[in-house]
Amino acid sequence: MGITKYEENGKELWRFSVHVRSRKHRKVRAQKRLGGYESREEAEKAHKKWFQWAASDVARRENEGITWNEVIDEWQLWYRRFPSDRWDPATVKDYVALMHNWTVSWLEKSAAKLTVSDGFQLVEECRQNGASTRLLYQIRTTINVIYKWGMGAGKIPGKDHSPMFSVELPKKGPDSDPEILNRDQFAELIERARKAEHEWYPVWKVDSYTGMRASELDGLRKEDINMVPREKALELDRSSDPVKNYGFIRVCRQWKKKVKCYGPTKGRYWRTVPISSQLYWYLSEYLQNDFGADEHGQRVFPILDELKQGRQAFVLKSFCIAEGLKPIKFHTIRACFATHLLAAGVAEAKVMKLGGWKDRETMMIYVRLSGIDEAGATELLDLRPREEIEPMVQFPNVVNLFQKR
């Protein structure tokens, strides 16, 4: 029964503890610990009373369901036990942090009792705390994901939709001016980095010809690079064949700074990027450097602290400002890779495959930037005076079949 005897100030007393846990939700429990009773009979009587209270409280909370904070914890625990291709550890960690930061007023409330009214109130609270429109959409999406899981897992009884189900958000603002460089601007940036012997130059150089993410570049190893022999490359240089195979780079891992380990790429599949002639001759010399090795193979690049910390954008932007160039983020190199290939006539599907884009909506941003869909569309528009337009060629021997006799 959890009743024990103890001594206090030379006097014999009795105490008890009550602990009732739900069989449906292990985090739902009620407990009590009391002492100071002069007899066992008195302690047993009090124990019976508090046990009834604990059982009643647990039953009431079972009907209400667990709190929103407990639903979040259960969702996180589930995907730790059963990893998913969609919800990797880093994504789960981000979602949980987002909920703990922006749904504070919900955390101790019963998830089953949250209503649409709570949803509207939460949006207003987030807006007052400085949440942007983009962040509000992210918060709503995350709540819907976790709440839907909670309903399906039986953690939130008696509900068929999320409290954010019909909550309307303001329209997203207009697109900002794209951060992109044309071919000459980009070439100048790479050349300036080479002349300055910047420690990040090799990273920027390789990225400009592969479009790899920063985390993928950190995960690149020499064993992932397959290049043809030098004699074959010289033969290809002399060849007039438009399709030349200098080798390929296999992109199969990336650095995950939030969990501090290497893992699969963002799309969770490996891809192949062909090596161009210019990249081939650069790598043939650069790969002679030795930057150590780990369980994945020999490192291509040295260990860069900013890259491990996710501060690669700061490094590039600082260099651009110091050189008087247009400041850009690291991800812009990847955007330039896509737009320059599209503008050169490479098929959209092939560019998506090279860069590892699974979402066509994202690729459409680069299609718009390259202008390939609109190219030549206005050529048929001729607003010169009619007399200035070249007269049509006449064909005197052509008979009009519809001419009246």
Give a brief rundown of this model:
The chain has 405 residues and is α+β, with helices and mostly antiparallel strands. It is 44% helix and 12% strand.
Describe the structure.
- This protein has 405 residues and is an alpha+beta fold.
- 44% of the residues lie in helices and 12% in strands.
- The protein is built from 15 helices and 10 strands.
- The chain has helices at 40-64, 68-81, 89-102, 116-128, 133-152, 183-195, 201-210, 214-218, 230-238, 277-286, 305-308, 312-322, 331-343, 348-355, 360-370, and strands at residues 3-8, 11-21, 29-37, 225-227, 247-251, 254-256, 261-263, 271-274, 293-294, 297-298.
- A 3-stranded antiparallel beta sheet has the order 1-2-3, with helices on one face. Strands 4-5-8 form a 3-stranded antiparallel beta sheet. Strands 6-7 form a two-stranded antiparallel sheet.
- A hairpin with a 4-residue loop joins strand 6 and strand 7 (261-263).
- Helix 2 (68-81) packs antiparallel against helix 3 (89-102), helix 13 packs antiparallel against helix 14 and helix 13 crosses helix 15.
- It is elongated and about 110 Å long.
- The termini are far apart.
- The model has no long low-confidence stretch (mean pLDDT 86).
